[in-house]
Design a protein that fits this description.
- By secondary structure, the protein is of the alpha/beta class.
- Among the domains are: 66 residues, Orthogonal Bundle (DNA polymerase, domain 1); 99 residues, Nucleic acid-binding proteins (OB fold (Dihydrolipoamide Acetyltransferase, E2P), Beta Barrel); 154 residues, P-loop containing nucleotide triphosphate hydrolases (Rossmann fold); 159 residues, Rossmann fold.
- It has 24 helices and 22 strands.
- The longest helix is centred in the N-terminal third of the chain and has 33 residues.
- The protein is globular, with a radius of gyration of 31 Å.
- It binds adenosine-5'-diphosphate (ADP) and magnesium ion.
- Magnesium ion binds next to α12.
């Protein structure tokens, strides 16, 4: 087997301890394997040589072959530069260096044949190439090279220490010329054969040294497929093990509580999507297997109702349920609305948060043990060690991405037979990402809004148009509406952000003075009690405006609030803006989202704002977000500790390859669930190498 791949990179000729340290710190390259898996981000075409006479100003890069006839030094001070007259049969270009002049003079000789590469620019009537790449024709013939030259990303620090893309390419060439560098095939013949994939060994070489566009495409496809395939294989294998080996509580009956709730308490009819999802959940709960389901639905789509009905099914079958929210504000809101919804139904509901008083807490603990509480709502406090349930059968996590993996893990440890788990998220996750992050969960989607909702109108104004916005706000308040004004809160400059909030609050107070207007404030630095007082003021309709940082981002439900003003909207991410917008449009009135921006926007910010104006569809927005930011940045994946780095596949672009990978993984596991066949041994080994030590989402369940 290829031990060389696992050898430390410092043993590669040309590396040494200093460079090894740099490679490992800056690029995560510790071993030969890491180096050869450091894939190029693009290629430059070096198949073509140009003649000087063909040069044109709109050419990006050109490659020329010729000789230097003359060096000269021009200008002085910072403008001092070295130039060289470079000729081929058709004419002359001037090569220019501002830096490293002495080195250049030493390195290159007159009348010797060189290949030069760079971008031509027109300068006082002649073509110039500033800081060209230069290589001797003879040497080029000797080294491992290819028609297309790979470009590798490097950090500033790497560049400072002369570790440029070129240098990495050289190291790559050295690595590939080691006779003992071998790549054992990692995919079985049943895949490589039928899909006509490039072998791993060819793909690894060609990804770095392609001779044609075809090489690049085939190598990329093979490597992307492999990367996505193994992730899917891992997730699906865990899912398989779980469904085959673990038991779940059997919720077999639909009893009085759910029936009488449905008949007497439900004041509206469920949407088709809600009905479908509840059916899916009921099937799971009645299967005798543990449910692990992700429920996606845009803000306001009615997930809480689905949660409540699932918990009532639990209660009908004699099991307790808990509903976890990411913030206290939200937990209180869930508690209030659920208590209201189930008036008259025989199901004890309680609220447990970090600020629950000790006496109340004692009462709850008793109720949990004697079974008089069947629905417990709260925050992280729900999963603290000392919270003991009599028979917890269902755990529902709202807005799961605020909970870390470790916190979720505690849940699974609560009992021997793990409770059913329903994870609800209003951050629509693009399908590709969901399949990768939650590929082992079953997915339900509420893709239909309750009837009667008007589409929220989204508009953008600059700071200069503030008076106009204030005028609009006053008219809305006159019509009895309430308004949110949200300020960004970004960790790096927290005190600055609070200053923004305070300044904003001051100008708001001038524009909306008491006693005619009442403004309530909610931000992260307030005590939970003060927050609750402010929230209540607004909830009861006594405050016209709520000025807040993003604490209101998640879940707050106040139907009479119909205007959302987002300050410095360019500082928010796309999904975040969509979440904020979802705070309005919950009542019958026309709602508005007003994005305040500074006068000049970066191209990215402008695209975010335009996307938001163009669509209200959360999934479309999530896809756009993924395209613009890449999955590593995607809200939720980082906080959740589930950030994973893909080396070559791109979830924003490679959806089709992902589908292929998933269906091939499904096929293989369907025929050979434990990967025992001789053809599949290689897969078992691959899984072990890739995921053996790593903590994965699936392992905690
Ligand atoms: P989510 O949690 O998905 O953001 P909620 O469950 O908070 O949404 O529902 C938003 C609002 O819509 C709530 O006031 C809820 O009572 C109401 N609602 C839920 N389902 C329906 C329905 N089928 N018809 C009408 N209103 C509904
Ligand atoms: Mg909700």
């Amino acid at each position: 087997m290829s031990e060389l791949l696992d050898t430390e990179i410092k043993f590669l000729p040309g590396v040494g301890p200093k460079r090894a340290e740099l490679l490992s710190e800056e690029a995560g390259i510790h071993t030969f394997r890491d180096l050869v898996s450091y894939f190029p981000y693009k290629y430059v075409d070096k198949t073509r040589f140009y003649n000087v006479s063909e040069l044109d100003t709109d050419m990006q890069y050109v490659q020329l072959k010729g000789k230097i006839r003359r060096f000269s030094t021009e200008g002085g001070g910072t403008a001092k530069r070295l130039t060289a007259d470079f000729y081929d049969e058709t004419g002359m270009v001037r090569l220019v260096w501002f830096k490293g002049q002495r080195w250049v003079l030493n390195a290159y000789k007159l009348e010797k044949e060189y290949i030069i590469f760079g971008k031509p620019t027109l300068f006082s009537g002649a073509f110039n190439i500033v800081h060209p790449e230069i290589e001797e024709v003879e040497k080029k013939a000797l080294r491992v090279s290819s028609a297309y030259e790979a470009q590798y990303s490097t950090t500033e620090k790497m560049k400072d220490h002369f570790l440029h893309s070129k240098t990495i390419a050289k190291l790559m060439a050295t690595a590939f010329s080691q006779p003992s560098l071998r790549f054992a095939e990692t995919l079985p013949e049943s895949i490589t054969g039928t899909m006509k994939l490039m072998s791993l060994s060819d793909a690894m070489f060609r990804i770095h040294f392609p001779d044609s566009n075809n090489d690049i495409e085939n190598a990329r496809f093979r490597l992307k497929f492999e990367e996505l395939f193994y992730i899917q294989l891992n997730l699906l294998r865990y899912k398989g093990i779980r469904t085959r080996k673990t038991h779940g509580f059997l919720f077999s009956i639909v009893g009085d509580r759910l029936n009488s709730f449905y008949k007497n308490n439900l004041s509206f009819s469920l949407t088709g999507a809600q009905k479908r999802v509840i059916r899916e959940i009921r099937t799971d709960l009645g299967s005798g297997k543990q449910m692990n389901r992700l429920l996606q639905g845009d803000v306001g789509s009615g997930k809480t109702m689905v949660a409540l009905m699932s918990m009532l099914i639990g209660a009908d079958n004699g099991y307790q349920s808990c509903l976890m929210a990411p913030t206290e504000v939200l937990a209180i809101q869930h508690f209030n609305s659920i208590s209201h919804f189930i008036r008259g139904i025989d199901a004890g509901v309680a609220l447990l948060t970090g600020s629950t008083k000790r006496s109340e807490r004692a009462r709850i603990e008793k109720g949990l043990l004697d079974g008089s509480i069947s629905i417990l709502i709260g925050t992280h406090a729900l999963i603290e060690e000392n919270v003991k349930y009599r028979n917890l059968g269902l755990v529902i996590i709202d807005e799961q991405h605020r909970f870390g993996v470790a916190q979720r893990a505690k849940l699974w440890q609560k009992s021997d037979c793990p409770p059913h788990v329903l994870v609800m998220t209003a951050t629509p996750i693009p399908r590709t990402l969901a399949m990768t992050l939650y590929g082992d969960l079953d997915v339900s989607v509420i893709d239909e809004m309750p009837p009667g909702r008007k589409v929220i109108k989204t508009m953008t104004f600059t700071d200069a148009e503030r008076e106009k916005v204030f005028g609009f706000m006053r008219r809305q308040i006159e019509e009895g509406r309430q308004i949110y004004v949200v300020y960004p809160l970004i960790k790096e400059s927290e005190s600055l952000d609070y200053k923004d909030l305070e300044d904003g609050l001051e100008s708001m107070a001038r524009a909306f003075p008491p006693p005619q207007y009442c403004i309530s404030v909610v931000h992260g630095r307030m005590t939970p009690r003060d927050k609750a007082i402010s929230m209540n003021l607004f909830r009861k309709g006594q405050a016209h405006i709520m000025v807040a940082t993003t604490v209101i981002e998640v879940g707050v439900d106040i139907p009479n609030a119909s205007v959302m003003v987002v300050e410095s909207a360019e500082r928010f991410g796309l999904s975040q803006l969509h979440q904020l917008r979802g705070r309005v449009g919950r009542g019958a009135d026309q709602s508005f989202c007003i994005l305040m921006t500074s006068h000049r926007l970066s191209a990215d910010a402008a695209e975010r704002i335009n996307t938001l104006i163009a669509t209200n569809d959360g999934f479309e927005i999530a896809e756009a977000d993924l395209r613009m930011r890449g999955p590593g940045d995607l809200e939720g994946t980082q906080q959740s500790g589930m950030a994973f780095d893909l080396k070559i596949a791109d979830l924003g672009r490679d959806g089709q390859i992902l589908n292929l990978a998933r269906s091939r993984a499904e096929e293989i596991l369907a025929n050979d669930p434990d990967l025992e066949s001789s053809d599949n041994k290689v897969l078992k080994a691959g899984l072990k190498r890739l995921f053996g030590k790593k903590f994965t989402w699936s392992e905690i369940s």
